[in-house]
């Protein structure tokens, strides 16, 4: 299989002293959907940013389609990677179409405006995501879920090989989370590679063929959801009691039972 992205023995530190993560290695190939799971603050966002050139590794390297990431310009990276960060809120009231056309900027000169071809690509993406009717709406007036779809359209207009999505379902309601994961599934079937972080092991069962587990600065497991997402691993990861149940179509779901934390609310009595 064609390797799209490879990370080798990577470590990262914000202050050059304390490492956020250490010695991380894995690779993903065309059509893979990799879900990165790990507790809050474990370094998922930091890792995702290191994979698209926004963070410089302390040691190790990232190889993007055979080239060292640090040898590529941001424009070259943007032609291969579409990145959706957490909580992206443009302050200006651009139209939805304009927001999506911004995805074409890696292909335009500094002073060049999007042309007919770019508009066609943007409209095509809107059509494929079933949101063409939103083209002239103001982006800032959209709901959280609509914004997420439009931002996905924007990165798809970049015509990338790889999507890096940081908690892409965090602003979506229950139904839209599943619909978004189905879009991910369809995109991967068309040959796009997807790397996303999530707080929901169930989402990995729905849409991923690979899972990376991060905890205490390290990648503690990497493999298929069936092999990697076990009750033992999830209990260790999130420190709660839970059961993994099998439902129809051999799909597994994760059901939390109770947390092992002790909360003392006595101060409310005073
Ligand atoms: N710009 C920064 N400067 C210094 N420390 C940072 C910075 N960004 C994140 N950190 C720290 O790095 C660690 C990892 O943060 P990161 O956001 O990567 O974790 P995460 O797994 O994505 O968390 P969450 O699941 O809560 O989004 C945390 O201790 C965080 O406080």
TrEMBL record:
<keyword id="KW-0813">Transport</keyword>
<feature type="domain" description="ABC transporter">
    <location>
        <begin position="5"/>
        <end position="241"/>
    </location>
</feature>
<dbReference type="InterPro" id="IPR003439">
    <property type="entry name" value="ABC_transporter-like_ATP-bd"/>
</dbReference>
<dbReference type="InterPro" id="IPR017871">
    <property type="entry name" value="ABC_transporter-like_CS"/>
</dbReference>
<dbReference type="InterPro" id="IPR003593">
    <property type="entry name" value="AAA+_ATPase"/>
</dbReference>
<dbReference type="GO" id="GO:0016887">
    <property type="term" value="F:ATP hydrolysis activity"/>
</dbReference>
<keyword id="KW-0547">Nucleotide-binding</keyword>
<keyword id="KW-0067">ATP-binding</keyword>
<dbReference type="GO" id="GO:0005524">
    <property type="term" value="F:ATP binding"/>
</dbReference>
<dbReference type="Pfam" id="PF00005">
    <property type="entry name" value="ABC_tran"/>
</dbReference>
<protein>
    <submittedName>
        <fullName>ABC-type transporter, ATPase component</fullName>
    </submittedName>
</protein>
<dbReference type="InterPro" id="IPR050153">
    <property type="entry name" value="Metal_Ion_Import_ABC"/>
</dbReference>
<dbReference type="InterPro" id="IPR027417">
    <property type="entry name" value="P-loop_NTPase"/>
</dbReference>
């Amino acid at each position: 299989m064609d390797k799209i992205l490879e990370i080798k023995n990577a470590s990262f530190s914000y202050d050059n002293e304390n490492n956020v993560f250490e010695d991380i290695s894995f690779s993903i190939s065309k059509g893979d959907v990799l879900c990165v799971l790990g507790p809050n603050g474990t370094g998922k966002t930091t890792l995702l940013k290191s994979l698209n050139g926004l963070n410089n590794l302390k040691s190790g390297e990232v190889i993007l389609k055979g080239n060292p990431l640090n040898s590529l310009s941001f424009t070259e990276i943007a032609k291969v990677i579409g990145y959706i960060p957490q909580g992206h809120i443009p302050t200006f009231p651009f139209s939805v179409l304009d927001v999506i056309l911004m995805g074409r900027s890696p292909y335009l000169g500094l002073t060049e405006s999007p042309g007919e071809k770019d508009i066609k690509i943007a409209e095509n993406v809107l059509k494929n995501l079933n949101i063409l009717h939103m083209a002239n709406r103001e982006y800032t007036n959209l709901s959280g879920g609509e914004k997420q779809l439009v931002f996905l359209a924007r990165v798809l207009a970049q015509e990338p090989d790889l999507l890096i999505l940081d908690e892409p379902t965090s602003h979506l309601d229950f139904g839209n989370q599943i619909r978004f994961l189905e879009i991910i599934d369809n995109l991967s079937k068309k040959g796009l590679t997807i790397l996303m972080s999530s707080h929901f092991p169930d989402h990995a069962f729905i849409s991923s063929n690979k899972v990376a587990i991060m905890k205490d600065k390290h990648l503690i497991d990497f493999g298929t959801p069936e092999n990697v997402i076990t009750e033992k691993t999830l209990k260790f990861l999130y420190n709660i009691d839970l059961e993994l149940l099998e439902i129809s179509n051999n799909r597994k779901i994760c059901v939390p039972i109770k947390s092992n934390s002790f909360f003392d609310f006595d101060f409310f009595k005073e």
